[in-house]
Amino acid sequence: MKKYNFTILVVGALLCTLTAAEQAPKTSFKFDFGPGKAAPGYQQVLPTATYSAAKGYGFDSETTVMGRDRGGKDALKSDFVTSDKPFYFSVDLPEGNYNVTVTLGDLKGPSSTSLRAESRRLLLQNTETAPSKFLTQTFTINLKDRQISPTATVQLKPRELTKLDWDHKLTLEFNGSRTCLNALEITPAPASTVTVFLAGNSTVVNQEDEPWASWGQMIPRFFKPGVAVANHAESGLSLGSFLGSKRLEKVLSVMKPGDYLFVEFGHNDQKEKGPNDGAYNSYTERLRLFVQETKKKGGIPVVVTATSRRSFGAAGKIENSLGDYPAAARKVAQEEGVALIDLNAMTTQLYEAIGPEESKKAFVHYPANTYPGQTQDLADNTHFNPYGAFEIAKCVVEGIKANKLGLAKFLRNDLPAFDPGKPDALANWQWPDSPRSTVVKPDGN
């Protein structure tokens, strides 16, 4: 009888193990795109592979592609999918950091690709390959979800419920005049991967819609594999509302020693008028809390002063529209002994270098009907367009270097020094717009 019971227990344990294995989400994929023969060990993806929840991967958001097969001995590079319009490819994945490797190119023609992840996070810029030349490049990408614990979740705003950043998928946007996608590999990133968490408002958030953009969604382009940017910023937030919606709690729940937290607030904190509010009251107290809680987790806090508004005075110089908040942030960084990136000072220098009138071209200033669904003029002196956001991301990179953060060793090699007083020429900037249905103004700052 005892032997029989033991056998039952063993069989039961095996069944439970098998069931758990069946339920565990898949986290590694190797896709070979195109109508030719699939490379050994790869899963073929035909142009007709539309995303479905049952399948767990496919071309998404009603975008379509065509397949091409050039023949040849290399099964992985002899065929591909392509389109003359942007297209999306999605894969169901749980929260975490992933190394994502793409192979691009065409044996018989050129290719040109910009690659973005999730809500327009820039990974690859206007990258071209000549006929018979291929590019294989790896990116480390963070995926997040709302869950903090079995009983706690991040309190999202209604507009966030449909954002690509908060769903159960990794979504890649392939943009450019002629993307030729050969292969895609996805694997969980090593435990040694450094995560850079971003806390902030609409000047930091991954903006979903053109023509808005932020430095937080541009900064991934500057890092090598081994660093994942986890952007938890959202429009309209202050330090207080970031705390109240449990976003810091979420960040701390997944932070590990050696990770970073970049904190940039001030625009919306300035609007809070309670009895304890103010730059040297609640703002300072809460900013200290962010710093101290990060240290407790073994993380590395970085205080970032709020980006300047485009607020030119009569003398053609930027006038401070943020009161004592930048100075208060500097004071906290000094007293807590943590790194400071003075983005307020650098953006002031940047805008003045571009000039009072030309600087509009770094912000969301567009006449009516420039974009579908835009029935009114846009004249926004707080939020940036992609060009402005990219230039500000370069300022952040310079701040990383100046502070000699360990993070600097992960910066890509193709990054010459950037001087905010000598911005890149707008004429050289290229940004193929992401598809979207309407122009949606950010919720506050």
Structure commentary:
- With 445 residues, the protein is an alpha+beta fold.
- It is built from eight helices and 20 strands.
- A hairpin with a 3-residue loop joins strand 8 and strand 9.
- Helix 5 packs parallel to helix 6 and helix 7 (343-354) packs across helix 8 (386-402).
- The protein is globular.
- The relative contact order is 0.11.
- The model has no long low-confidence stretch (mean pLDDT 93).
Spans of 5+ residues with little confidence (pLDDT < 50)?
Answer: none
- The coarse overall form would be globular
- Strand % is 25-35%
Largest sheet: 11 strands, mixed
On the 0-100 scale, what is the average pLDDT?
93
As a percent range, the share of helical residues equals 10-25%
The Rg value, from CA coordinates, equals 24 Å
Count of individual helical segments = 8
Distance between the termini: 71 Å
Please give the number of β-strands.
20
The SSE string, one letter per element, is HEEEEEEEEEEEEEEHEHHEHEHEHEEH
Judged by helices, strands and strand pairing, the structural class is alpha+beta
